[in-house]
């Protein structure tokens, strides 16, 4: 059940993402957690209640014996613009479950978490009329479809040292399936002639290491510095290729194994400053060295290349807390963030840019073990120049957090 | 202790409507139509379609020395000279009989004249230059009008002796599409016949002759008629429906008032009516055609290279076109060949070989054949069972667009992987389908593969291509 949740789409058809036809699709930049309203800025973020997947070193900050489970739901509205977009049809929307994770402070300085999170998503369909090979006059149509996702199941552990240092390891297992179909059609009546379906099953281990260094500056200031590193990994693929006639009779059915894509080394650094336990300012910078693995990535395609990507973001949070018997309990929080990045795709000489802003509001229930947040995000991806597509997107993310104290012998509040 | 707040209630009030709104909004959306993508697609190892239209096609003209022209329902009479087909001449033989109950003539009545009356009704077949008046000659058959021993029927090469002295003739221009004749008798051609013969027949009727009252005796005495084009005339061939051909005796019935009346002699033994077709190919490429050298042998096929790089269809004249594709299985030996998707045969007439006068057959059927050059069963299109007729796209202004097109997928699928040397040599035969095959003189001159690409016969094999994988 756990494995099926993140890739399950509420709508039968998810939003088209034209750039996802390249590489392994759109790489996920979002964590659908407490940092969503901070433009996912959280490499240095530490929380005693929320699971901060941005940095595996963060899990040691959970409250003792505290068990947490979180899930995220995102609704996305996209407006497409650019020369390749048919004017009569420029919008789409979908809702997807994005995340299911859980974690616990297993020991005094040891936090651990398991879960399933999205890694990349592919969802595209397009027509490509072409001259039949051997003819200068006859046209057929390639109807390309690509749907699928790569997810990450992980087990992350972090251990705190000296009350100021936390080290973490996220042992991830990437897996997923990309279903890519090339249907050859009669250009006149759209009748299917032949189809080639590639079912690409991807998998490999993907390790991420993290550290956080934190402490106080004076009485009211707190700081945290964070860093992450993921080493390069070959994404192995077992491809099953099925060629069928229009009547679904099988012409060819065979499998090939190949290195589908090499994921590059990825680096991240972050900073968080908190004043009076109420105001927090955060900043992140992440970098993926796609250029360094360009020789390994011979993914078929024209007029585009995989190039080193980066993402920078800042966030600001106001937390409303109240004292209950000498403990400060957070009641709600307000977040905002800005982000700007350039993706790993360079198409027609233009690197695809992604930028936007987020606003979030969260409530921690005192009556129940739940906490909720709702995040509004508006962003712009791509450009209309160079025959590209610009996607103006608006996302609404719901995050639900369940927290409970486990293994306690004392009385709990009802 | 218990901490009481109303958060839970407020939270659900906040959460549930928001999520419900999200679902409702999304439910109204549909996916955009994006043409983004083709620029970035490279070879992704998918199956593709490759068309090969360079398969060698060997064309031949198959000549059958006789065609079934008996009992067709039309008396085909006339002649013309065609650049490609030479001189075509056709005569019609017919048996006629007196009415079953001839009128009783009195001594006061008197004979007037006799004529052969033929109506050319609309939609009847014709071919040639109809602006030129055509002479029609009527002769009497000079021998017993019957099949010989072991003769199963009359054919296009059949003939009967005729009395060289014609019974009558007429030169008429016929406008076939109105139709109207230059004799100003609407659509009717009237040929005055020998006056003495008419008087003889009139007197026999008056005398209630046994020869008139008994059809067998009449046929044994009269034999029949032969309608032929006049010597030296060159116009067109016309088809007169046999039910509209009558030998008519005109007489006057004298009573208080004198009334013109007539007695009709109409066709009998319909199955014995036949058209004798002859062709004189002198001076044309067809002169090189191989003719049968023995009494019974397969119709000989003459390669197009011997007949001006063209092959000829005029089924009523015994001409059909045979196609064989000797190297078709070379396609199946390509490394990327996976299977035949479809195959299309495009047959194009030689540009300039046809016009409004020298019309193309509106339908040419596609049949199976083999080394015996005989017409086999129809070759249907994929998913159908009926015969194909080529769906002629006739374009006089852009002749290169004029073509007959056939779906030969099933034929090619069977042939392309057949490496067995059986000696059957399967091929295709192009022939005008029935019933036009016995009455239509329309012809097609088909360009062989030596013609430029857009003018010649082409077999386009669309095969599924998938390059070998590891």
Features:
heterodimer, A: 414 residues, mainly beta, 14-stranded antiparallel beta barrel, 1% helix, disordered N terminus, B: 470 residues, 12-stranded antiparallel beta sheet, 5-stranded antiparallel beta sheet, 6 helices, 12% helix
Question: How would you describe this structure to a colleague?
Answer:
- The complex is a heterodimer of chains A (414) and B (470).
- With 414 residues, chain A is mainly β.
- Chain A has one helix and 18 strands.
- Chain A has a 14-stranded antiparallel beta barrel.
- Chain A is elongated.
- The two termini of chain A are 30 Å apart.
- The model of chain A is unreliable at 1-12 (pLDDT under 50).
- Chain B has helices at residues 7-27, 195-206, 210-213, 215-222, 329-332, 409-416, and strands at residues 48-52, 58-63, 74-82, 86-97, 110-119, 126-128, 134-140, 168-172, 174-175, 180-181, 188-192, 225-229, 236-241, 245-254, 258-268, 274-280, 301-303, 310-313, 319-324, 337-347, 365-369, 404-407, 427-431, 444-447, 458-465.
- In chain B, the strands form five sheets. In chain B, strands 3, 4, 5, 6, 7, 8, 11, 12, 13, 14, 15 and 16 form a twelve-stranded antiparallel beta sheet that branches. In chain B, strands 17-2-19-23-21 form a five-stranded antiparallel beta sheet, with no helix packed on it.
- Chains A and B meet through strand 2, strand 3, strand 4, strand 5 and strand 6 of A and helix 1, strand 1, strand 20 and strand 25 of B.
């Amino acid at each position: 059940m756990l494995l099926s949740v993140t890739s399950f789409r509420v709508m039968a058809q998810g939003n088209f993402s034209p750039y996802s036809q390249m590489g392994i699709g759109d790489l996920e930049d979002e964590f659908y957690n407490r940092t969503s309203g901070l433009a996912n800025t959280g490499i240095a973020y530490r929380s005693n209640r929320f699971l901060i997947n941005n940095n595996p070193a963060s899990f040691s900050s959970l409250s003792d014996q505290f068990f947490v489970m979180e899930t995220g739901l995102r609704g996305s509205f996209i407006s497409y613009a650019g020369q390749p977009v048919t004017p009569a049809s420029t919008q789409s929307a979908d809702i997807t479950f994005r995340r299911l994770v859980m974690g616990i402070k297993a020991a005094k300085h040891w936090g651990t978490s398991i879960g399933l999170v999205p890694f990349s998503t592919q969802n595209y369909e397009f027509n490509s009329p072409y001259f039949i090979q051997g003819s200068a006059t006859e046209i057929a149509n390639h109807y390309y479809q690509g749907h699928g996702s790569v997810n990450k199941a992980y087990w992350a552990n972090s251990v705190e040292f000296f009350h100021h240092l936390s080290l973490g390891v996220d042992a991830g297992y990437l897996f997923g399936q990309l279903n890519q179909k090339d249907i050859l059609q009669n250009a006149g009546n759209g009748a299917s002639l032949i189809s080639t379906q590639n079912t690409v099953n991807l998998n490999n281990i993907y390790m991420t290491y993290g550290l956080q260094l934190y402490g106080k500056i004076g009485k009211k200031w707190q700081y945290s510095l964070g860093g992450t590193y993921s080493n390069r990994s070959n994404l192995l693929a077992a491809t099953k290729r099925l060629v069928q006639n229009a009547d679904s009779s099988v012409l060819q059915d065979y499998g090939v194994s190949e290195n589908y894509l090499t994921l590059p080394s990825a680096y991240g650094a972050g900073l968080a400053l908190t004043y009076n336990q109420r105001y927090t300012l955060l900043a992140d910078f992440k970098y993926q060295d796609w250029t360094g693995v360009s020789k390994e990535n011979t993914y078929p395609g024209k007029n585009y290349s995989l190039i080193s990507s980066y993402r920078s973001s800042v966030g600001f949070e106001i937390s409303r807390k109240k004292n209950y018997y000498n403990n400060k309990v957070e009641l709600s929080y307000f977040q905002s963030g800005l982000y700007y990045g350039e993706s790993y795709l360079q198409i027609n000489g233009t690197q695809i840019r992604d930028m936007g802003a987020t606003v979030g509001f969260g409530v921690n229930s005192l009556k129940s073990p739940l906490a909720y947040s709702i995040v509004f995000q508006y962003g712009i991806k791509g450009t209309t120049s160079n025959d590209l597509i610009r996607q103006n997107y608006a996302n609404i993310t719901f995050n639900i957090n369940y927290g409970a104290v486990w293994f306690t012998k004392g009385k709990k509040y009802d | 202790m218990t901490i009481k707040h109303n958060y839970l209630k407020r939270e659900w009030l906040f959460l549930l409507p928001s999520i419900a709104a999200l679902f409702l909004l999304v439910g109204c959306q549909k996916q955009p139509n994006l043409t983004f993508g083709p620029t970035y697609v490279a070879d992704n190892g998918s199956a593709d379609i490759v068309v090969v239209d360079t398969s060698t096609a060997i064309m031949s003209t198959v000549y059958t020395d006789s065609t079934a022209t008996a009992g067709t329902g039309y008396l085909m009479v006339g002649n013309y000279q065609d650049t490609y087909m030479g001189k075509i001449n056709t005569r019609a033989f017919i048996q006629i009989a007196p009415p079953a109950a001839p009128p009783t003539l009195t001594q006061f009545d008197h004979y007037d004249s006799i004529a052969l009356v033929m109506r050319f009704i609309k939609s009847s077949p014709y071919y040639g230059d109809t602006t030129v008046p055509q002479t029609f000659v009527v002769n009497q058959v000079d021998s017993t009008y019957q099949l010989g021993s072991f003769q199963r029927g009359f054919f296009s090469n059949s003939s009967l002796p005729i009395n060289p002295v014609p019974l009558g003739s007429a030169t008429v221009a016929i406008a076939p599409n109105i139709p109207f004749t230059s004799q100003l008798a609407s659509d009717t051609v009237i040929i005055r016949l020998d006056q003495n013969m008419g008087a003889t027949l009139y007197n026999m009727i008056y005398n209630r002759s046994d020869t008139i009252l008994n059809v067998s005796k009449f046929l044994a005495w009269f034999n029949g008629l032969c309608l032929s084009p006049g010597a030296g005339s060159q116009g067109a061939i016309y088809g007169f429906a046999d039910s509209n051909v009558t030998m008519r005796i005109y007489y006057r019935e004298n009573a208080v008032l004198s009334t013109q009346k007539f007695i009709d002699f109409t066709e009998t033994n319909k199955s014995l009516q036949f058209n004798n077709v002859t062709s004189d190919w002198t001076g044309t490429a067809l002169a090189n055609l191989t003719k049968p050298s023995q009494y019974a042998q397969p119709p000989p096929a003459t390669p197009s290279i011997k007949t001006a790089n063209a092959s000829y269809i005029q089924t009523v004249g015994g001409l059909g076109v045979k196609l064989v594709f000797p190297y078709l299985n070379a396609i199946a030996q390509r490394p990327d060949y996976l299977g035949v998707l479809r195959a299309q045969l495009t047959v194009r007439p030689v540009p300039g070989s046809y016009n409004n006068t020298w019309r193309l057959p509106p339908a040419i059927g596609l049949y199976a054949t083999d080394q015996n050059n005989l017409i086999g069963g129809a070759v249907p299109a994929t998913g159908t069972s009926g015969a194909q007729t080529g769906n002629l796209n006739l374009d006089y202004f852009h002749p290169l667009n004029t073509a007959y097109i056939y779906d030969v997928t099933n034929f090619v699928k069977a042939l392309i992987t057949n490496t067995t040397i059986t000696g059957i040599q399967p091929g295709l035969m192009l022939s005008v389908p029935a019933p036009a095959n016995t009455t239509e003189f329309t012809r097609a001159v088909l360009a062989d593969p030596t013609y430029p690409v857009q003018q010649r016969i082409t077999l386009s094999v669309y095969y599924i291509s998938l390059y070998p994988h590891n």
